[in-house]
Design brief:
The chain is an all-alpha fold. It contains twelve helices and no strands. Helix 4 packs antiparallel against helix 5 and helix 4 runs parallel beside helix 12. The relative contact order is 0.13.
Amino acid sequence: MSESTPMAPGTSDTLLNPAPPLPPSPGSRPGKAEKPASLWSDAWHDLRRRPLFIGSSIMIVILVVMAIFPSLFSSVDPTQATTCQLATARQPPSAMHWFGKDNLGCDTFARTIYGARVSIVVGITATIVTALVGGLLGLIAGFAGGGTDTLLSRVTEIFFAIPAILGALLILSVFDTGNMWTVTLALSVLAWPMIFRIMRAAVITTKSQDYVVAARALGAGKSRIMFRHILPNAVTPVIVISMINLGMFISAEAALSFLGVGIRSPEISWGVMIADARPRFLEAPSPLLFPAAFLSITVLAFIMLGDAVRDALDPKLR
């Protein structure tokens, strides 16, 4: 009669009473495996706790709604000539006209609200165009290298050699149309090289990473490597700089309109309002101060948003 093999102390208790399963981690869904955290999910989790991001986002949402639906904020349509009364020109702010009236007797509050549309459209459109053109060319130059990189880099240096204000004045003087699309074109032509350089540097750094080398060794095509593996990991600095550039484009449009080569009357923009109010500033300061204040708040909001996103996406700054 064979003897049973002795068991280690505590083994029978462990087999008969297995340890209870670990409780699910907070935020995980039962029955589903947890997905590994990504850079964007970590950034979003961090952004939601930043007062700078929350405050700038609220301001930007209000400004965008103001640009899309100006009638929600003002019952006066300043694009109608009948709403302006020359006899009431330069009236100070009152209960009927919160920002007073300008040199032509138009309601300054209504013109400030409607002026947001042109300024924000120019800023957003120029940002998208420069991000697409500069980002795509930078991706191609950084990935291809060699002669392609050299050619695109030399072309970029030519554009960098053109002074920004002088180049914009030249382009707008040639077209001489005074609308938002020519202003957008002038700003985009001069601003895309900055995005090109940022994307090119990011791509050169990313394409030497191990996961890119592994994808190339597994036989992945060039387009798949560029858009699947390199672009998602190199686009972060472009997004951050584009958010900051959006505010700068809005201020550049105002500067060009103030100089008389950008948006022109009867179009309404903050730069046009500042230029129209300048000759009589000492007599009636409100038609200049209020659009200038809205312009400053808008530029500040986009710059703060870009700074918050940059801090959230850069692990060294957390």
